[in-house]
Amino acid sequence: MRIVIAGGHGKVARRLGRLLSRRGDTAVGLIRNPDHEADLVGDGMEPVVLDLEHTVTHDVADVLIGADAVVFAAGAGPGSGIERKLTVDKGAALLLADAADQARVRPYLLVSSMGVELARHGTPRGMDPVFAAYLQAKLAAEDRILPRPELDTVVLRPGRLTDDPGTGRVTLDHGVPPGEVPRDDVAAVLLAFLDAGKRDVVVELVSGSTPISEAVAAVP
């Protein structure tokens, strides 16, 4: 498979890239900082310098031609303000969807966040406004991408991410209580979804007791 990953230098993206490359697949990482190219090459990935905040659809589509799937694992990151939540977590996700459509790549995996529904109707009382903007941006991307018939979309909403070693066991369902999940396991779940070929899926992810392969297979 040839998989294009937006946010290619992110912690989840690099883990996914290594999993893909180790089994012989091609992982293409979209990055905005050319200084990160060597890191991706070291992971066995193909780096492509392309800033999704400052490009146009057809330039992204050119990179996606021939891909088997796209993964949006980008994020504005901690320390960024409300404006970048909108331009990255929402705007870049939508741009990637437009480019996937143009390049005729149907599978689209969107890494979102647990808790997005909390901010659907505004900033909950006591919630940091920047974090609320992050959740709203992720939710807006979900709402705009899921209905698109030209895409086979999987939305993964992980809980709080940790750098603990993965266990290979998770809880993957709707209405999951808040919890944590290692980035290793998030990457492994994404890989399993890439293999499973599911569509129109929205699930939450935390650590649990079910082996990842079984958890993904059980998703309708």
From TrEMBL:
Transmembrane segment boundaries: none
Entry superkingdom: Bacteria
Residues covered by the NAD(P)-binding domain: 7-195
InterPro entries membership: NAD(P)-bd_dom (IPR016040), NAD(P)-bd_dom_sf (IPR036291)
SUPFAM superfamilies assigned to the protein according to its UniProt record, in alphabetical order: NAD(P)-binding Rossmann-fold domains
Gene3D superfamilies: NAD(P)-binding Rossmann-like Domain
Record-given protein name: NAD(P)H-binding
Native organism taxonomy: Bacteria, Bacillati, Actinomycetota, Actinomycetes, Geodermatophilales
